[in-house]
Amino acid sequence: MKTLVNIFDPDEPLAAYLFLKQYYAEGDRLLFIATRENRQLLGRYAALFNLPDDQIDFIAFKRAEDSYIYERISRRLSSRLSPDVTYWVNLAGGTRYLALAVQHVFTQFNARLFYVQTRENLIVNSPFDATFDDSPDTIDPIRYRMTLDEYFRLHGLSHDLKERSHRPTRSEEDALRVFDCFRTRRLSHRAFHALEQLRLIYRGMRKPMPIHDITFGRRDRRDAVPGLPELLNAIGFVPKEKEMLQPSEVDYLTGGWFEEYVYYTLQRLVAPQQIAIGVRIARPGTQHNNELDVVFIKANTLFVVECKTGVASDHMFNEIVYKASALKESFLGPSSHSYIFTLKNDYDHRLQTVAAIMGITLCPKGTLVSPDLMGRVAEQMRRISNELD
After folding, report:
1. Of 67, 239, 322, 386, whose CB neighbour count within 10 A is largest?
2. pTM score, two decimals?
3. Nearest CA-CA partner of 363 in 350, 372, 373, 348
4. pLDDT of 278-289, one tens digit each?
5. For the CA atoms of 223, 226, 232, 233, what is the dihedral angle to 10 degrees?
6. CA separation (Å) from 181 to 238, 259, 306, 343?
7. Interhelix angle for 314-327 vs 350-357, to 10°?
8. pLDDT tens-digit series, residues 37-83
């Protein structure tokens, strides 16, 4: 039996979690080093490992300055460690100064020192001694693969993954057919206008409606969409119930198809461990929640894709970018990567530059319609995830 030690960093909990998943064995104990204020956040670790509280120890620095004054760090740690215990210590996490102090103290005990490289999916075991030749570093690839549920819970987020399927409602061929209409600009003005009317008037409706009523309007409402039959015919859309449109089908026609197209494309080109559409996440205790259009995880790396069929103005685009950036910073952590896929053109790369400044990768229409360019985007995602061969 051994004690697995982590410097707890609530802003980037991934390194600690993967270290534990890699090396934890039944009977091991966990030890976290951090400020006292973070102690309450350790509950998420206990819940994910199904460990009782008495198997988890915590060395807390009572005052903020204690976590960056070397003498105090060393004295506090030394007073809590035992020469009879074997420690496996992960030096990733916290400040560099704290990691140096932790390294110094644990080398005086029976300890093995590790460093988790989450970006490379590797764990380095480096003997720290007076020699450089007789104790070479060893490198272990991280074999464990997280699920979306684990990633969200680890970052303190609730989600609705188990409440509905989060899978496409229609086939890949259906999504490809609609995409091809936009790619080739095959939709007539009348059909395209019908699409906009559907979005403004009927998106979010709660009950099925006859196509006839939507096309010609009803006596008690002025909501006719005369180009609807032309739109359905142009994209080859066949409703599940004859002559009726379900609320989910209106959502599909007014943008859901694009999310499903992106889902199928990424599933085929990137081969993630798990991918989902329309996942809602929230921070417990707050009223705000966010919907992730397409989200997937590959080799413990989270990717979030905002899908927009159109962007009417620069102001709207800026709002989309700011939202994606804030979501990454406040909710999903530095191990996540954010993209915006849109059917809007970006001929002068101006929008791409704005997105890049905020740490977001933009894939405009010119990228989406080019197999070569989409191949490069997929290759970038695979490279970022550092999936093992």
Report:
1. 67
2. 0.91
3. 373
4. 999 998 877 777
5. 170
6. 16, 16, 21, 12
7. 30
8. 666 677 667 777 788 878 888 888 765 555 567 788 888 899 999 99
